[in-house]
Design a protein that fits this description.
Six copies of one chain form a homohexamer. Chain A has 245 residues and is α+β, with helices and mostly antiparallel strands. Chain A has seven helices and nine strands. Chain A has a five-stranded mixed β-sheet. A four-stranded antiparallel β-sheet of chain A has the order 7-6-8-9. β9 of chain B pairs antiparallel with β9 of chain C, so a sheet runs across the interface. Chains A, B, C, D, E, F: This is Ribonuclease PH. Chains A, B, C, D, E, F: Homohexameric ring arranged as a trimer of dimers.
């Protein structure tokens, strides 16, 4: 039994609310327990300079936390005049993960920017961002596919992400902040609907971990991610059926 | 009749939802039509260097828009590495306006930071931020007053703000983005519960305006602000009665 | 009687010295008592990216103070690596005010940059900058109109600015620094030669103000501005007669 | 057989040259094939502000590439005025990995900064940096331990790192740049002398990977890291024997 | 005969106007032909961190050009967000040169900041800044010496600076911008009243120069500098007599 | 006799190792005693915007020190977010010096960037950088001349640089850090193979210097530079013979 009453392999309560923004081509509010992230997908009919003329599109992500998303107020990165290392690392991860399930040729010379803005943080903000951003991106791509009558749906598979870790000696799924602070091992896993790994990032800063622990964690992550993909499908409705087609 | 069916002296639909953040000492989501702003008040037991040792507190504000709060996505100021002039101007205005109704000596050597994050923008984001931030600040001050048993309630009067402008030749209240883009005169007014002016900022970039127009606009603003203060009182409940005591 | 011997509706001693810079298309040194500002107008045969291809020109302004323009030396913004909020707010105001009396189509695809550099500050630097910059701009436009034989003179009306405020309970015109520091209300007003308002920015940070105070202040501002426009005309000579033609 | 004649489980030629800097408390030049990194360890008798007064030390790392470390010259981050996301991610990784084998209490209130400067890059710069920085850090700690007669040697275990990946369908160890560019999966692994994982970062941007592939890669990494630790021991000599004591 | 009618060893018309700023402890406007620089000296009763506790003072300088000091408008360094290399080089030179004639122990733990703001530039702005800053600094030091009854006057010798160069094959003194642009050799010389060199910076970017040319240039510089020192003495009056005492 | 056993006119031990980088078009490691600098020359087939369309090439330089090149670790300029004044001054000097012996028309519309990265510093890093960069540049130009069959070899003369100074009353050549810290006069000299001056930068911050001292220093510099040019020739081999042809 965990402090909040969950079993080791329980996700937190996951709520995905679509269409929370009236301008964005795709948008959701995703809540994983007390972690709340607004994900919007913005489409532009151009690609960044380094991609020009290749007949391919681009997917990129930005991540930010509101100053009071956390227990103690954080200074805004805009006020400090630069992005922190953690922010850069996270937005690189989100972009890379989403690109792994997008056929950039099928997308055409367009950029989709996923903005993941954490309204409230209670652990797992990067994994929750990926899970939510996938839904916002799919909504935007679905609109694009209809408007431009794309012959191939540019999204090739489902994608979701969750954190796992070893807390008080036991592998657990979807850590909240209190658990995360006490975890001996902390691992973020991104997987596809097919069950393949896109990213595995495990850190044992407090204490190194064994191959056995790693396997147990990956198992937990896999089941959690399949559950998350179920929730994505429910929200996406008919768009979900086009994925991989 | 205006494009959205309002009469010239109608506010948009105003909804103030309290306690939207579990960490902040005070918080609201304020909606004015399609404009949505999260306002949080964060209390720190210290003042900025230039205020040290004076036995007084400080009120400051920060303002930001999510990148897709607008029709076309804006680049993040954190990514550009600096705050824009518009942002600085707005956050200076919010801070100045709120300080005008706070007794800084009664507050003691504390800082309250009001973060106004625009989730969706449809005109009037600065005035809506002031109106919402006043509620979040009062919640935080009420908590402080109880915890520290302050002898004097540090908030001296109500405060709210609204925009007015001349659109198609007619003075109107609480402009949305479409109206604002076509306004010949654009004025932001901040007033107290007592009906005195704290800020009047009128701009006739497209065309200068007359004294008569100005008077008509101020009249509209006054009635709109009294209505907004009514809504603030309803949300604040018992804390509202302590104001000015 | 005020500390420096002026009556409430007296301007300080205003001196406008033209042609203080041998390179700029228009330039003045404007002195309002001990406040001294060099205003230069620089013409470029191109417009900023966001204005391209519209057949219109652009007017923009930059404002700065020398480090020792003030009693206590200020750090240079160049050394700090960014413009402060006050600077941005002021230069946005100057640009906006000047644009209100320029016919941008008549100007053609050109940019005029007004640099207002405060050599010495004793209150009213932003209003003095506007009054001086109008003269420098008109000189530069006059040169342009002659060189390019413009069919319509691009400046449509006179423009000047002054500060007013309530000091020791009395509305006064053109505050110096000592008065400004003690003012309960501080208002900057920009008006045209026709007597219409372009900007009204009133702030009652120390104490809110009434409609009656506001009216008295606007009255004072109007008379001061008409006097300033008289001085502008005297300096501009024949160019003055082309305005609005 | 790989393009450079290595077998899948062959490391490149590894050369660690100690004492390449006459000022640093510890220093090596580490070469992995054509990848060359200078690692220096600098000791300061103070800790960063967030660590003050806890009786513990701190280990931090910085990473940089000379502009012409790569085939095409890169702009300096100092000239661009900010660290890139990749640099930040790498230096966070190096610091975190090294801290996992340091007893910060035993170190005392001191900071050791590991500078990893890539002189020439041919793949694997981050893993090579970790392997080299561990040696430089141990040299510096050994000096400290002797000078200050530390009762406990602050380094608790060996640490080295290597990259593995799937190239042309086959799992291979220690990828050079040409291999890395064509890898379907790219994984960086950090392990201790005891054989436990400290960091596992696997990315399948081009194509997701299976659990079987992951296991094969981790196996390769483990054998490579044990070989690297053998080389570290040879260089460290007597200091090596104090580790974990 | 030079283009402006001067002989090779003629300075331009030099005018030094004292007390041009009502706040600064020392100030001059120095004009060398069409080059015009405002130099102010600001005294602070503290030293920078790296000088603390040594019982010595510090002299530092900052240099800037107004945007339209030049034929073509320059972007402000504050707007670009950083100081250019040329600016840094010049302000380092000014500070170093002035410190060479100040007894920092006699000054006590105080900082004097010399601000050299170029109002109009026509060649020789850095040398003119040094010559003017020396006067402003001496005025400020004289005030300090009187207020604090310093036993030793902290300025040990006169100091002035001039440019020399080889233009159309002939060595000339005090180049204006047109000459400077065509000079084959460009040299800035700083000398003391005693006739010793403090700085010699000669550059032959267009063409290297011989020892003979160098000697001729230094000769010219020496006579020019003695003439400049004569002008400094005339302005400084009684303060001049305290130098070196 | 100097502290390290050298006579006043002795250079330190100079070692130039060519081809230390496998990617750069030209590269050396140059050592002057304990000062060690990697110089690489990178060729790009384009020129900076301000040089476009003139049929001429460009030579530019960048200079940096590794953080632990010095006794006490320095903060990285990339981490501080800006280049320091000293760095800018040095890289401007290196670029200017090298350009003085390059025929930019003969080079064609190409840029050569010289990166001088100080691996270890013991005085004279800027002069050593110039001497080494000349060799790297000549290697790169030689390659270019062969590949593109240039009709004229773009390098017109040799170029080297050395520091001289007055230490303990005596003029000495090629100061190490300990000598430099105690020098009363510090001078950096750049000369061509023909024996002409390209840069002379003498500073007497601690004490001004006489014409006699200056002449003695220039004499020393000249002999040192001729010796350095001898070493450059030995390394350059056949490329050396093309210079000035």
């Amino acid at each position: 039994m965990r402090a909040d009453g969950r079993k080791p392999d329980d996700l937190r309560n996951i709520v995905i609310t679509p269409h929370v923004n009236k301008y964005a081509e795709g948008s959701v509010l995703i809540e994983a327990g007390e972690t709340k992230v607004i994900c919007t997908a913005s489409v532009e009919e151009r690609v960044p300079p380094f991609m020009k003329g290749q007949g391919k599109g681009w997917i990129t992500a930005e991540y930010s936390m509101l100053p009071r998303a956390t227990q103690v107020r954080n200074q805004r990165e805009a006020a400090r005049g630069k992005l922190g290392g953690r922010t850069m690392e996270i937005q690189r991860l989100i972009g890379r993960a989403l690109r792994s399930v997008v056929n950039l040729e099928a997308l055409g010379e367009r950029t989709i920017t996923l903005d993941c803005d954490v309204i409230q943080a209670d652990g797992g903000t990067r994994t929750t961002s990926i899970t939510g951003a996938f839904v916002a991106m799919t909504m935007a791509v679905d609109k694009l596919a209809q408007q431009h009558n794309l012959s191939k749906f540019p999204i090739t598979d489902y994608l979701a992400s969750v954190s796992v870790g070893v807390v008080q000696g036991e592998p657990v799924l979807d850590l909240n902040y209190a658990e995360d602070s006490n975890a001996k091992v902390d691992m973020n896993v991104v997987m596809t609907g097919e069950g393949a790994f896109v990213e595995v990032q495990g850190t044992g800063e407090e204490a190194p971990f064994t191959k056995q622990e790693m396997e147990a964690l990956l198992q937990l992550a896999e089941s959690g991610i399949q559950e998350l993909i179920g929730k994505q499908k429910a929200i996406l409705g008919s768009a979900a059926e086009k994925i991989g087609k």
